Amino acid sequence: MLLLDATMSIAPAKEAELNTWYHLHVPRLVAVPGYESGNRYVAITPGPRYAALYEIRDHAALPLLLGEDAGTRDEVTLSEWAVWDRDLLPHTSDLHLHVYEPLAATPPRLLRGGRPLVVVRVEHDAGDPGAAEAAWREAVLPGLARERDVAGAVLLRQSPDPVVGWLNTGPDRLLGLIECDGVAAAAALAEAGAAAGGFAQPLADAAGGRTARVTAYRPIAQHWDWEAAR
Q1: Which of 48, 127, 179, 205 would staple 151 via disulfide (CB 3.0–4.6 Å)?
Q2: Are 116 and 180 in contact (CB under 8 A)?
Q3: Half-sphere exposure of 76 (CA within 13 A, CB side)
Q4: In this structure, is the dihedral angle defined by the CA atoms of residues 61, 127, 203 and 141, taken in order, positive or negative?
């Protein structure tokens, strides 16, 4: 399972238009074979205001869903991106669009969905991914296991698949996703993780001392592939 992570802030004058468009955009994408689910969130702590996370079945689906060559792309994805590029992209800021793949062992689904989320983003160079996985397993997960409101956690890295190389808007990144059982718990966990010596620090250290960005989000929409869910 792969994950498409789209985060952004939007000019206030365009915020209502963005949300109206997204209300139909996510289910349209999820109906395309290869997408498994789409979850959308709004920030409750400092960070990019909106996040949309899409589970993707596997690498074989990437040319159809996100390939740079329009000739390989599904018509629905092309039409949706055309509207985005024309009407909304010029009004965005803090925009990041990446495809991630699991770095550590994960369950079949990356997101259980419908829960507040703490997102940890760490820039890193093309170093040893094993150091990040070890830091997550040995220094981060034990602390999260003691948090009664943490429902699940997964660590991913930006995919090196060349099919989606054209999407990447920054250096390689680590992505930690922590699902919580309440909005207040997610906000408190994000604040603790971002503090000096917080749980995000071991990941930053493993990535060469880069700064970790920690943001809490509450869910505002959840969609999945109805055929696959039967």
Answers
A1: 179
A2: yes
A3: 14
A4: positive
**What length is written for the chain?**
230
173-180/150-158 β-pairing: antiparallel
CA-based nearest residue to 178, from 201, 199, 209: 199
List the structure tokens of 38.
């789409």
Domains defined for the chain, CATH in brackets: 2-229 (3.30.70.100)
Tens digit of each residue's pLDDT, the chain (230 residues): 999 999 999 999 999 999 999 999 999 999 999 999 999 999 999 999 999 999 999 999 999 999 999 899 999 999 999 999 999 999 999 898 899 998 866 667 888 778 999 999 988 665 567 888 889 999 999 999 999 999 999 999 889 899 998 987 666 688 999 999 999 999 999 999 999 889 998 888 887 767 789 999 999 988 876 444 43
